[in-house]
Amino acid sequence: MLDTHHSGANQAVSHLLSHNLLLYMTAMSEIMLTPEMRALGKSGIMVSPIAWGMWRFGHASHAEGRALIEAAFAAGVTLFDTADIYGFDGSGGFGDAEASLGRILAETPELRSRMVLATKGGITPPVPYDSGRDYLMAALDASLTRLQVEQVDLYQIHRPDILAHPQDVARTLEEMVTSGKVRAVGVSNYTVAQTQAIAALLTIPLASVQPEFSALALDPITDGLLDLTMERDVAVLAWSPLGGGRIGAPEDERSKAVAAALDVVAQAAGVSRATAAYAWIMAHPARAIPIVGTQNVARIGEIAEVYKVRFTRQTWYDVLVASRGERLP
User: Fold this and answer.
1) Which of 24, 86, 129, 155 is catalytic?
2) How far apart are alpha carbons 308 and 271 in whole angstroms?
3) pTM as predicted
4) 317 is catalytic
């Protein structure tokens, strides 16, 4: 005769075990983000998992600029990204962002020791690009003068100069390092082939690449750049992580679909959509470092909340599918 009491108890235990196993598997499948410093490629430089970008910093007053920098420090940021062209409005302002930061560093020199300072050069409006040795060396010196420092931690070629042979560019980058003016070098907006060429010709590590990368800018995933960086241990600095503002204020159907997928995760973690968008980038195994561009103290403070976000494979792929506009094969 069947013991219905024990049968029911066994079913209850089995159900409980299955439920606990499901919870365990769900927890194990979450992609955890942590605030620990990580290496900037093979450079030996340690940086925060998120950077703060200063492309609009040239318009800040001294007090405003100092407040923004302190907010970034408070949020755990150590990597600060600028460029000589930041501040340029089409007719003037070239170098303004660097100069503004330089004035703050001159008046408060202890800030410099707390930051990993990155800048870029090679855009020469209206040419538009010059990666020749003479120009880049002069551009580096000009950046150091504006920043009022003797050395930057990372110097990147801002845009590839088609007329510059990668071997000549490699020698120039090496000269920057041997001069003591630069600790590590990288490239920005290079194609995969251009990145492979410069990396092969350098006798020092290529520390970083800086592509546009967001839930709305998927090229680094699809063109092989992220795979290359993982293969060669190169850091990825992701510019425009909010898709040029389209993630925060979506207007077209694709952006709205991505925003909706991000909102599911953001609401579960109690964070903003922007924070979830940063976390989506960081969840990729290439460990890309989003460059947060906001010039708002409160929004800079949200950077610290990114570690609350828990993507699963399902929710991460949901964002990808929304961006692609079609199911994965």
Assistant:
1) 86
2) 8
3) 0.90
4) no
